[in-house]
Amino acid sequence: MSLIDPVIARLMINTLGGYGTPPEFGIEYYTVGLEPYLKVFETDYFNFPGRQNISTFKLVVGNYGGGKTHFLYSIRNIAWRYNYITSYVSLSATECPFDKLELVYRKIVSNITPPLNEKEMMNPYERGIEALLRKWYYQVRDDRNFISLIKGLESISFANCIKGALSNLAAEDEDGFLALVQWLKGEDIPRALRLQYRIAERIDRTSAFRMLRSLIQFINTIGYNGLVLLFDEAERGMSFSSARDKRRALDNLRQIIDECGNSRLPGAIFFYAVPDENLLLEGTGGVYEALKQRLRSNFTRINPVGVKIDLEKIEIEPMEFLLKLGEKLALIFESAYECKFEDGILQKSIKNMANAVLEMQMLDISYRRLFVVGMIDAFGQIKNLKTVIDREAARQILKTRTVELLKEEKEKVEREEF
After folding, report:
1. Which of 13, 139, 169, 223 has a 20 to 30 Å separation from 391 between CA atoms?
2. pTM for the complete prediction?
3. Domains of the chain, first to last
4. Pairing outcome for strands 85-91 and 227-233
């Protein structure tokens, strides 16, 4: 493992120590237990000749706080190493419900991100359709015929808008460029502008999936191996609020699965992460049965073509997981604060914290998340006091952090309901 930049390490500790949620960067420094899954994806998907011409879908299942987002970020990092663009989309009932594909499309184009390093990831201007168009233009602008490279897109309106935006960049017409980017983001633009650039469609519920296919085709056309879409049902429930919305969302999901393997989605890999597959599949009727059939095969090292990835079945026991996680978090903390823990004190403290976490029966907080926040608090005490965190001290830290986490969770739920 390479040395961790102190600034990156400090930002990671601040994020992890707050509420145990993973930061967008540095995820590889404290990944534990996922290595077998990630290795299979690297060898059988991202680094496998011919995979760039087809698409695939995976369902990721993991308890709330159980590592879904961490897994998705890990997949994103591998994808970047193999020249894929990614888009992480946090689904929610208020801002981005999966039953409204036009809203999902908007989030996708706002978050599409080419391969970045850790420093670039902290720059918000490095992501989104605007940034992607600028990046590609600066690569090809010396070719006088670069506009002709844009071909084979399903939506003529999408292709015309891309061509118009790039032509405006070449003409140094910044306002014209941004006006057309607005349409690509799923927003309305004046009718006169649509007529001028021969944009006959709007991006709405009926056209959203066609525009998504066109986006994937465009990404493939400009030299990337494909697009990795990371959908994260990040809340305890799902991103749809009624039975009708759920059926529409499941139909969107079925349509995506059925499109995979289709030449219209070159190099597209879809990951859909849920806290509980029963929340997704409980119900009767055609769409439920159709999805159950499509999602029943399990992804394993032996069966990499399986669809369902169950993060609760990773091949590592909870105690071993926490001990390894504690050691990796300690290295990050040492880099962040430029200190060095005494090995005996560190190992005993990690073990005591792990035992204290596992003896607590928390229904609302993942033991992994609780361990992360508790361990980072413990590191601060070890650094200052140079003494072992015994079992009782670990319990006290965890009780305090549990109250804080539950309060934050309650406030988040109230904000969403409002």
Report:
1. 13
2. 0.92
3. 33-114+228-315 (3.40.50), 124-223 (no CATH), 318-417 (no CATH)
4. parallel
